[in-house]
Amino acid sequence: MNDTICAISTSQGVGAIAIIRVSGDDSVxxxxxxxxxxxxxxxxxxxxxxxxxxxxxxxxxIDEVLVSVMLAPKTFTRENIVEINTHGxxxxxxxxxxxxxxxxxxLAEPGEFTKRAFLNGRIDLLEAEGVMDLINAKxxxxxxxxxxxxxxxxxxxxxxxxSDLVQIISNINVNIDYPEYxxxxxxxxxxxxxxxxxxxxxxxxxxxxSKNGQIIKEGIKTSIVGRPNVGKSSLLNALLEEDKxxxxxxxGTTRDIVEGQISINGIILNIIDTAGIRxxxxxxxxxxxxxxxxxxxxxxxxxLILNNxxxxxxxxxxxxxxxxxxxxxxxIIINKCDLENKLDFSKLPVDMSKIINMSIKNNEGIDNxxxxxxxxxxxxxxxxxxxxxxxxSRSISILQxxxxxxxxxxxGLKENxxxxxxxxxxxxxxxxxxxxxxxxxxxxxxxxxxxxxxLGK
Length: 457
Hints:
The chain is built from 15 helices and 13 strands. It is an alpha/beta fold.
C-alpha cells in the first residue's frame, strides 16, 4: 500500500485512445519525470494537462498525451492518481508503461486499484464486487443491478440489519453491566422474540429476492434434452438465430454439448444443446448421453422436446420423472406439429400448462416458448422493478448461515435460554454480516476476490 502502482486500464489492442492509470503517493512525481509540458507537481487537482511523454534516457518523444491529475483524498483509491491518455497503439502504450515501471512504479496486480479503494475506506466489499459486475454487465438489467450495488443501495440492506443487531446487543449489555439504570428497557426473552423474528423475516426476504439477483447476474442455465432427432439442435439454432449446431436427419448427430446465449427481457438464457438421450452401443454417443443427463443437474430450466409424429415411449416417461424428481423448472415442447399426431398427450405425467406446441422447422411457436419462460421466472416483474438484490454467491452463502443462526436464537429464546448466552450468538451474526460488506474480512478472501478483476481496475 505504500508503493505506487500502474497498469493499462483500457483493452489491449489498436484503438483511438489508451489509458494508463497510476496510483500512489509518488504518482505525480513519477509521471512528471516523463512529461514535457506544465509542471504536474504544481497544477491544480482534477485537471487535464496537454503535453508529451518523453524517454528521459535519450529525450525522444514517445507520444502526444493528455494527463489527468487527481490528488488525494478525492480519488477512486483515495491516493494521488494520474491517468495518461495516449493514442491507442500497442507499441506506444506499452512503451509508456515500461517507462513508468523503470522510473519508480510497480505493475498493479489484478483488481489492485479497487482493492486499495476498499482498504482505504472509499467503498465497501459489496460495492467493490459491484464494480466488477458493472464491467461484466451484458444487459441493461445487469447494469442496473450492478449500479445499485456500486452506489451502496445493496449495502444498506446489510447495514440496516447490523444496526438493529447493535441496538439489541447494546441494550443487553447495559442490562447486564448496569442493572441499576431505570431508564433503559429491560430486555427479556418475551421482548426479544419479536425483534429476532422481525430480523429473521427480513433476512428471509433478502434471500428470497436474491434468487432474482442471481438470475439477473448469472442468467438462466437452460438444458435442451430429448430423444435423438426430435429437434434439439434446430431449437438452439432458432433461438440463437444462427446455424450454430449441426442439423441432419441422422439420429445421434449431436455427440457433445453445444452452447449459446440469448437475452429475454434483459435476462440471459445460457442454453445447452445436448446429445439425444437413448440406449446406444456407440461408445462416443454413450459419453454424450451421459453428459446430457448431467446437464439436468446443473440446469435451472429444462426444455424437454418430444416428437409429435412418434408415440410416447417408456424412456420419455422415465426422463420426465427424473426432471420432476430433481424439482427442476421445465417446459415440454411438442415439436413437428406440422406432421401427423401420433403422441398421446393424455399420458404425459406433466403440468399441461407447461406444454408448448411447435414446428421448429417452420419457425412456429418460438414466441410462445419465450412467453412461457417469462411467465415461469416472472421476468416482466424483474424488468420493471428496481433491482436491489444480493447477487453474489459469497454474500448469499454468508446470509444463509446467519439465517440458520437466527433461527437457533429464536428457538433458544422460546426455550428460555439465558439472555447473556443469546447475546453471544447475536454478536456472532453481527460479525458474520460484517463479512458481507467487508467491515470484517480475511486477507485471503480479499486476495482471491480481487484476483478476478481486470489488471487495470
